[in-house]
Design brief:
The chain has helices at residues 2-16, 60-66, 140-147; strands spanning 20-24, 32-35, 38-44, 51-59, 70-74, 79-83, 90-91, 97-98, 100-103, 109-114, 117-122, 130-132, 135-139, 149-152. It is an alpha+beta fold. The chain has one domain (2-152): 2-Layer Sandwich (Copper Amine Oxidase, Chain A, domain 1), CATH 3.30.457. It is globular and about 45 Å long.
């Protein structure tokens, strides 16, 4: 019975969650997109019945296409490579420019490349990218930290 109540709670939260949008920094730049294709996951702490956070995931290709970033899927290795489009910036989360991000579904590490030099940045385990219905979804923090895009409600 508790599991049924939990399932109903999750479905209600998903149904009533507001549609989010992304805006490029600065927000007043005029470039905004509405994203209806998102997946919200409830993250539970020690108590399996009490969610402690809502984590929102967005389709990587959809956001990148809208903001003119390039996405290539390496089907043999099973990962996405995101590179800058014209006039676009990718950062390492500390504001340092990088050339590419490598995102592997099911893994908490994101590989950052600047030329031939690569380094890893780790996401919380709850934020790892995943594939659903043939689409790669990544946590909203990836867009904020590495693309300079901000979620607005």
């Amino acid at each position: 019975m508790k599991r049924l109540a939990l399932l109903i709670l999750i479905l209600l939260l998903v149904a009533i969650s507001p549609v989010s949008a992304f805006a490029s920094e600065p927000v007043d730049s005029g470039k905004r997109i509405t994203v209806e294709d998102s997946i919200m996951k409830l993250i539970f702490g020690d108590d399996e019945y009490t969610p402690v956070e809502k984590a929102t995931f967005y389709g990587l290709r959809h956001i990148c296409d809208e903001f003119n970033y390039e996405v290539e899927w390496d089907s043999s290795q099973g990962y996405a490579v995101v590179t800058k489009g014209e006039g676009k910036v990718l950062t390492d989360g500390n504001g340092n420019s990088i050339n590419a991000l490598v995102i592997l579904p099911g893994v908490t590490l994101i590989e950052l490349h600047d030329g031939d030099v690569g380094k890893l940045d780790e996401l919380p385990v709850e934020y790892k990218a995943f594939i659903e219905n043939g689409r790669l979804y990544v946590h909203s923090s990836v867009f904020e930290n590495y693309f300079g895009l901000k979620t607005v409600d």
